[in-house]
Amino acid sequence: MDQRTILQYQLVEKIGTGGMGEIYKARDTRLNRFVAMKALSAGMSADPDRRRRFLQEAQAVSALNHPNIITIYDIVSDGETQYMVIEYVDGKTLSRSEERRVGK
Fold first, then answer.
1. What's the CA gap between 93 and 84, in Å, rounded?
2. Residue 28: what are its φ and ψ, rounded to 5°?
3. H or E element in which residue 98 lies
4. Does residue 79 come out as left (phi exceeding 0), alpha (psi in the -120 to 50 range) or beta?
5. DSSP secondary-structure letter at 29?
6. Which residues contact 17 (CB under 8 A, 6 or more apart)?
7. Residue range 48-74: mean pLDDT, rounded
8. Where are the strands (E) in 19-79, listed by range?
9. Which residues lie below 8 Å from residue 40, measured CB to CB, with a gap of 6+?
10. 104/100 Cα distance (integer angstroms)
11. Cα 81 vs. chain centroid, distance in angstroms?
12. What is the pLDDT of residue 59?
């Protein structure tokens, strides 16, 4: 992946894909830490209802404070794409844990 930069966030690698977009590992060059960036794809960003739901998700999660819930740092835009900047937690995915448990 080319190392695109959005504001102070330098995208390092794509780490997942979901129904509404993609998740990237990024480096916050201002605070020198890794973050995750959840992208609402450009197609989804064009839909006002999807943008509203994306913002509502960020607001709902940011209102919570618990060790088992990620921290939301910011919401940023790059052209038509919206990004939620969230805490990056290094580790294996639940699907990888399940594969290992079942012996796949």
1. 20
2. -80, 105
3. helix 94-102
4. left
5. T
6. 23
7. 89
8. 21-28, 33-40, 72-78
9. 20, 21, 50, 51, 54, 81, 82, 83, 84
10. 6
11. 12
12. 92
